[in-house]
Each structure stands twice: as structure tokens, then as C-alpha cells.
Write a structure and sequence with these properties.
single chain, 141 residues, mainly beta, 7-stranded antiparallel β-sheet, 2 helices, Fimb_usher, fimbrial usher porin activity, Fimbria/pilus outer membrane usher protein
């Protein structure tokens, strides 16, 4: 069926798991999807974090110009939601040492101590003439 897709996924690692369930609809105005993710993270120090996040996304391909558009919004409904990157960082942050030559300091990303509530992304990709590839633009708030 090209109109409705059910999907799911899981990630399992040492002291971490997350699973996602969602659905997507193909409409005349583009594809719309919604999903929910539950995560469980047990830190090396024994702290346990269980949380949920929700996503809604819209994607559109304009065949006349070979242009792709995408929008997505996430709601982190609980402070204890952890991505796998969050889980790994929390277990290793005390061992992190910034190199003086680093342009980007990952500690800056995690300075809010995982208290994020929402995020939003937008992207656009334009195919170029044959053999020239494509140009893409994306942003995350």
C-alpha cells in the first residue's frame, strides 16, 4: 500500500535500549509521519533514566524540479529521555578532555544536562544537472 506505512525500530546496547513505533501517510501534498520513541538508560553510576519523545515530520518531492523539502519537530515529553549519544556521553563525560585544537567542543552541546524540550529541523535538497550532483541545506533548532 503506497498510502500508509507502519514502521518501528529498536536500538539495544549495554545498559541502553530504545524503541520507536510510527506511521506515515503519503498524501497529495507530501508525506506526513508521526512516531513515538521510548528510551531506557542505566548509567555506570547506577542512575536510571526512562523517557519518551514524539516526532512529526513532513516531506515533499517536487518532481518537476527534482527538489526535496523536509520539516520535522520533536517533543521530548520527559526530562529523562536519552538518545544513545546522550547515554554514552553521560557515562564518559568525566573522562572528557578538550583538545586545545578542537574547533567544536562537544561539552557545549550537552551543557544543558539533557533538559531539552523541543527541537525542529528543516532541509532542502536540489538535484543539479546530470553529473553535477546536488546541493543541500539543512538546519536544526
Amino acid at each position: 500500500n503506497n498510502l500508509l506505512t507502519l514502521y518501528g525500530g529498536t536500538m539495544v546496547a549495554n545498559n541502553y535500549y530504545a524503541f520507536t513505533l510510527g506511521t506515515g501517510w503519503n498524501t497529495r501534498i507530501g508525506a506526513i509521519s508521526v512516531d513515538a520513541t521510548k528510551s531506557h538508560s542505566k548509567q555506570d553510576n547506577g542512575d536510571v533514566f526512562d523517557g519518551q519523545s514524539y516526532q512529526i515530520a513532513y516531506n515533499k518531492f517536487v518532481s518537476q524540479t527534482s527538489t526535496r523539502f523536509g520539516l520535522a519537530a520533536w517533543r521530548y515529553s520527559s526530562r529523562d529521555y536519552r538518545t544513545f549519544n546522550d547515554h554514552v556521553w553521560a557515562n564518559n563525560k568525566d573522562n572528557y578532555r578538550r583538545d586545545e585544537n578542537d574547533v567544536y567542543d562537544i561539552a557545549d552541546y550537552y551543557q544543558n544536562d539533557f533538559g531539552r524540550k523541543n527541537s525542529f529541523s528543516a532541509n532542502m535538497s536540489q538535484s543539479l544537472p546530470e553529473g553535477w550532483g546536488s546541493v543541500s541545506l539543512s538546519t536544526l533548532w
